[in-house]
Protein 1
Amino acid sequence: MYLNNSKIIVIKIGSSLLIDENKKVRKKWLAEFAKDIQVLIKQNKKVIIVSSGAIAMGCKKLNLSKKNLKLDKSQAVASIGQIELMNLFSETFNKLRINISQILLTLEDTEQRRRAINAKRTFDNLFQLGFVPIVNENDSIATSEIKYGDNDRLASRVAQISGADSLILLSDVNGLYTKNPKIYKTAKLLKEIKNIDKDLEKNATKSISEHGTGGMKTKIDAAKICQLSGCRMAIANGLLIRPIKKIIDENNCTWFLPKISKLDARKKWIISSISPKGQLIIDDGAKQALSNGKSLLAAGIKKVIGKFQKGDHVKVLDKRNFECARGLSSFSSDEIIKILGHHSKEIEKLLGYVAKSEVIHKDDIVEV
Ligand code: GLU
């Protein structure tokens, strides 16, 4: 069983598991969930919990409805709710002597390499100290342009950065079905998914809805990140009592299997970027060069889309607009506009200063 072989496990809890429709906190459920975590810790596994619920807890405290909440107000509400959320965790986990800590992340903490490494170091140190990190997005600071907005993708990036073997998204559905189970009695739960193809994505978004911020779409996005990071991911029903035990005993969930990857940690991080800032369209010659492990040069670039800075993540598309690679650009979009189509030797003259000769160095690019 996958969980038995996992050393580092990330578990994501959606708001609806902590607070029911009548705004009642599901204390009994959390107390049982803590037992699941205790079992994993006793087996020497490292656990990270990604928990939503700051906004829901804040709304409960202020007696507000989550609907129609404007961003700036929701930031204040999250600030009030986050402490309520952590109080709930510490009250419940203390009873079982499970040590917990809090980490609040913004998008840049995972999307900038230096900050991602820093986050990894903090996770490692917390593991060494015997603490279970509880992560949420820093909703009080994040604005709409620099926000994950959903904890599914946040959890997958946390799994990738921490080197987790498994990510479990506890949701209010059992997993992915062949058809909508609420309409079709013959719908079957998909137990294992190796490839996420277009049909699967379409079906998942259309037929299965769920209450959380992300729904199925962000869960599939999270699964794609996990697949590239060499991490297994499950969508499982968290509404059940002792959901992790249920997964271990009954395996009634959907597992996305990782792709075999020879990429090192840095390249895994590059390929699973959440927020590429722009796109470079390249010609067939440059595409071939990338396949041969070469750098991307200005001569092979046909067009730049979007505005980005030096060091930002970009997507590389072929002339048919299919994504073929992702990388970290050594030039800003404005600079690339000036040098595209030109030989590397001309860059200094075109820009008026000495610069690198590759637009994306081979160490900074990964083919998709
Ligand atoms: N970070 C949000 C919260 O704690 C939840 C995001 C989500 O639902 O995925 O309220």
Protein 2
Amino acid sequence: MGLIGICVRVTINFGGSVLVPDWPDFSWVRSAVNMIRELKARKHDVFVVVGGGKPARRYIEVGRNFGISENSLHKLGIDITRVNARLLSLALGDLSDPEPPLNFREAIQILLQGKVPVMGGTVPGHTTDAVAAMAARASNSDLLVYFTDVDGIYSADPKSDPSARKFDRITTQELLKLVGPKVTPGMNTVLDPVAVKLFERLNIRILVLGKEEISRFPDILGGKKHRGTEILR
Ligand code: UTP
């Protein structure tokens, strides 16, 4: 489905699984940088949120073996998302700020300077999926996009269940049933339930796209079709 062919403000979440599948992946980070550069050249406003990927889950797993509290495990995850945010913001050079914002106030200041804020996590208890939903609201974005390592939202994990079916569209109610009620440190569902609840109050288009669509995204914004999932309220 095509999108609006004018300048828009867009919040983009890159799942850690995209930029940091095991370790930071040069070609995917470069793909994100090139796409953001193209969006800026086309005069769009861009707010970026980055996840923690496998390193975050690994830190949390080791910490959990020591009986560390859930709150502290979440904080470990936040630290890793912020390392990833720093990498992407530095890779963006002058387009971004070398100091990734730690909160939305700082992020909006960077956005108002015409630069691209790149944020990791904020406070314990949700994932960067929810941070992106909050960022979209704080920045008054027209569109919220999640890039993941699967090409949309499926009825089950397509990597382990061959009968999994991809949704072209899904409502937040259906999505809540899929993701379950609770956020645990390092959880691995397509989107976290805190984010899905925030979607219910966000009156903008929300898309989940595969990482293969990163390079096409400027054209998708310009009206070309995407192959992911649209989230409806
Ligand atoms: P991620 O945002 O990486 O989790 O946060 P994710 O979206 O499930 O995974 P990716 O994006 O595919 O990698 C990692 C962990 O950090 C903590 C949570 O425990 C989360 O599971 N976290 C993150 C917070 O507690 N608060 C935040 O704002 C962000």
